[in-house]
Design brief:
It contains 9 helices and 4 strands. The chain is of the alpha+beta class and 180 residues long. The protein has a domain of 105 residues: Arc Repressor Mutant, subunit A. α5 crosses α6 and α8 crosses α9. Bound molecules: zinc ion. The site of zinc ion has 6 residues, from α5, β4 and α6. The site of zinc ion (ZN) has 6 residues, from α5, β4 and α6. It comes from Sedimenticola thiotaurini.
Length: 180
């Protein structure tokens, strides 16, 4: 495997580079440097260059995904029975746990990601904010709303996320009205 990495050095980011990325913005910059789409973000590609494996598998409806250490690799699992746009948010949320919370080798199994009673300081809320920043960067979100369209469906298509994710993002950035 080492031979393959030498032949194609940009395929996977070095461990040092991975651990120097602590924010959604840094990960978006990393994706762009590797030729990945940033809007909508190629979240699968980003996870792969971080040397994390993705497992799409059927889970019970209440479960969205997980971040686990398996056979010497980090693995992000996602419930493939959920809508593809919801799966993208799950992937970004688990990536948030990886960047923000896994440093002591911790693992996460996630149920429904949006809950009304979420403590705003909790790791779950942090991972949701991280996912929103990754998939709907604030500057691009504001540019699109003011310059292109403020309709939820248009915004959701632009970022390839769910209408629910758009509504929560809009509310958190202080937008209201227009069906948001
Ligand atoms: Zn979580």
């Amino acid at each position: 495997m080492a031979v393959m990495r030498r032949k194609n050095p940009k395929r996977v980011v070095s461990e040092r580079d991975i651990y120097s990325c602590n924010s959604a913005d840094e990960l978006i910059a990393l994706a762009k440097r590797h030729g990945l789409s940033d809007v909508p973000l190629d979240v699968d590609g980003l996870i792969r260059i971080l040397n994390i494996r993705i497992r799409r598998e059927a889970m019970d409806d209440e479960t969205s995904g997980y971040l686990k250490r398996m056979d010497e690799h980090w693995v992000i699992g996602v419930n493939n029975l959920h809508h593809p746009r919801r799966q993208r948010f799950t992937l970004a949320h688990e990536l948030g746990h990886f960047v923000l919370h896994q440093k002591n080798g911790r693992e996460f199994v996630d149920k429904i990601l949006y809950r009304n009673n979420l403590d705003s300081n909790s790791e779950e809320a942090e991972a949701n904010v991280f996912a929103a920043n990754l998939l709907m960067p604030e500057a691009e979100f504001r540019r699109f709303l003011s310059g292109v369209s403020d309709q939820v469906e248009d915004i959701a298509s632009h970022f390839n996320v769910s209408a629910l994710a758009v509504r929560i993002r809009a509310k958190n950035l202080g937008f209201s009205g227009h069906g948001l």
